[in-house]
Each structure stands twice: as structure tokens, then as C-alpha cells.
Amino acid sequence: MGKIILTGDRPTGRLHLGHFVGSLRRRVELQNSGEFEKIFIMIADAQALTDNADNPEKVRQNVIEVALDYLSCGINPAISTIFIQSQVAELTELAFYYMNLVTVQRLQRNPTVKAEIQLRGFSESATEGDTTQRQGIPVGFFTYPISQASDITAFRATTVPVGADQEPMIEQTREIVHKFNATYGETLVTPEILLPTNAVCMRLPGTDGKAKMSKSLGNCIYLSDTAKEVKQKVMGMYTDPNHLRIEDPGQVEGNCVFTYLDAFCREEHFAKYLPEYANLDEMKEHYRRGGLGDVKCKKLLIAVLEEMLEPIRARRHEWEQRIEEVYRILEEGTAAARAEAAKTLNDVRNAMRINYFADRELIAEQAQRYREANAN
To answer: Residue 118: exposed, middle, or buried by beta-carbon count in 10 A (0-12, 13-18, 19+)?
Structure first.
């Protein structure tokens, strides 16, 4: 069997630089490498509803936003299958069977689940009718890792390109695959995680210096932001709070501007935009010893980001004029995804011996047994 990719995003808003460096940029590279037999890219609207059940219109409207971001970044529907999760019913049935292979205690130990519960403000002790704190944890949200395992295994994915924060989720998928195969026989494919090659890209911080760029924290630079918006956000970025004057020594570690330069800047950018430095290391050294202001650093970052985002922005504008075609791409991709998931579901049913109507041998054996019993 050839190598297969499954990856995707929740449509809770437009995609941002964290998505881009975490996996989206890599997806385009992998798509164009010719290394993979199939590539499935999912718009995970059903998963988004697990913590947006009170605002389904938000999810509904953002499906097209995510699709536009995919296409504008270079995802090619002739190579990659883009589909909408909720329209592939087979995923729900697979998740239902996998629930029997995972304990509540194991889900509670999942670091990603714990972090997301805290981020979204769910209360683990909320009681019915309590309006003083946010609702208790929805079951759908709590079982998110099982749903993700269903998504990955349905398409027999061998490779899942994600950010570092998703490692515990992929590990849980691997556990489910192992348990299923051990119980019912070799049926499911064990996936491998593919992390960004640039260590900085594993978890891009928000513009405010928080650990993660997040829509809910309002610290994102979106791929569809205008040049003016990008400039405003970069100029307001968190830097070294002790670097008060240009002559003061500055700290590079934990400084958002330099973290972003690590993620996006290349040596040729200096020849183009800041030729007084040969590379980023030279610039960092100058900042550390003092004499380099934050504004100069931010202006370089603005130039680097604008060089990258302008083509994306232009392609997005083109796709925005062809919305009917975007929906056609999604519909065709979803139909192809359903066909693929149906094959896996059929194998799972066969392995679990719940293929009652297709198992002609079972029917014949049962009929013969009862005939013999009645004859006696």
C-alpha cells in the first residue's frame, strides 16, 4: 500500500500563521512532492461543533473560509481530496465502535484534551442549572481523540502532518489501532506523525507572547489579513520588556519578533531587505549586545511576511469570485472521501463479525443448525 496523508482543520475561523507553519505549508510541499498516493484534507466541522454547539452558524460560515485558505495556499484539488467531515457518516460509525476500546481514565490523561478543556473554560465540576461557570465538558468534546482516530483510520492514513500539540492525539490513535487489531485481527493502519522540520514551527506563539496562537485569545495573524492589518499586528508584537532603549542589551529568547523571524526568514531576505546583516544570527547577536531597536526588527518581519502573504492574498481574492466552484470542489471531494471511508468501515464490520447480512456462511450455518434441531 502506498503512503497516504490525512490532515485537516476545525472551521472556527480563518486560518492563521500558526496553522500555516504548523502543517499547512508542509501539506503543500508534500502534495507537490509526488511521494504520496493519496492526500485527504478534512474540514472538521463536526469536531468544531463539540464546543460550538450553541453557535452552529459560526461553524457553517467558516467552512468556506477554511476552504478558501486551503486553495489560496496552494492545495490543489486535482491532487488532494478536500472534504467536509460531517458529510462522511462512516466516520461517526467508526468512532462509535472505537469508544469501546478506550477508557474514560485514558481520555482524562490525554494532555491535549486537558489543555483544550482549560483553554475553552469548561468546568469539570459544573452542575445542572449552574450559571456561575461555563457548562460542564460536552461528551463530544471529551471524546475528541476517538473521533480523530476515526478520521485518520477511515482513510488508512500512514502519515499525519500536525503541530507538536497534537502528538498525544496521534499516540491515542495508535493505541486504538493496536487494540482493535489485537482484538479483531489486522485491519487498521497504524499512522505516523509528521512534525514540522523547523523546531520553531512546532508551536508558534501568539503576537502577545502567549504560548500558542489562538483565535479565542485574539493573538493571531490571519493568512487573509490585509497588508495594513499585518503591519499593525507586527508593530504591536510582544518583544523584550526590558529592552527599553535602543542601546540596551536585548533578549532574543521568548521575543515574538525573533521567534517569527526564525519561522519565516531566510538568508536571502537579508540581502533583499537588510543587507547590513548576512543572516539572522548576526542580527540576533547585535540585538543581544545592544544598539538594535525593536522597530527595525519589526520592519524586517513585516517585509518577510508580506512577501509570503501577498501571493496567498491574491489567490484568495481570485477564489472568492468563484464560490460556486469552491462548493463543487468540496462536494466532489466529500463524495470521494465517503467512498474511501466506506471501504474501511466494511473491513471493520467484517473483522468485528457484525456483517450479518453479508455473511452468507453465517446464515447458512444458522439455518442448517435449526433445521437439524427441528428434525430431532
So the answer is: exposed
List, in order of start, the domains of the chain with CATH numbers. Answer: 4-204+322-361 (3.40.50.620), 227-318 (1.10.240.10)
pLDDT attached to residue 110: 85
CA distance readout (Å), 116 to 72, 120, 169, 181, 270 = 28, 6, 12, 29, 38
Strand partners, 82: 41
Exposed e or buried b per residue across 162-179, where buried means at least 16 C-beta atoms within 10 angstroms of its C-beta: bbebbebbbebbbbbbee
Q: What angle do CA 22, 13, 305 make, to 5 degrees?
A: 50
Say which residue the cell 457548562 belongs to.
135
Q: Is 244 in a helix, a strand, or coil? A: coil
189: phi > 0 → left, psi -120 to 50 → alpha, else beta; which?
Answer: beta
DSSP 206: P
111-153 pLDDT, tens digit per residue, is: 877 777 776 666 655 445 544 345 678 888 889 899 999 999 9
Grid coordinates given for 178:
493496536
Residue 212 in contact with residue 206, Cβ under 8 Å?
yes
pTM: 0.89
Report how far residue 154's alpha carbon sits from residue 76's, in angstroms, rounded to the nearest whole number.
22
If one counts every other C-beta atom within 10 angstroms of the C-beta of residue 64, the result is: 17
DSSP strand pairing (80-84 vs 4-9): unpaired
What DSSP string describes 139-156? HHHHTHHHHHHHHHHHTT
Instruction: Tell me how far apart the alpha carbons of residues 75 and 164 are, in angstroms, rounded to a whole number.
Output: 22
Percent of the chain surpassing pLDDT 70: 94
Euclidean distance between the first and the last CA atom of the chain, given in angstroms as a whole number: 51
Q: How many angstroms separate the CA atoms of 243 and 250, rounded?
A: 5
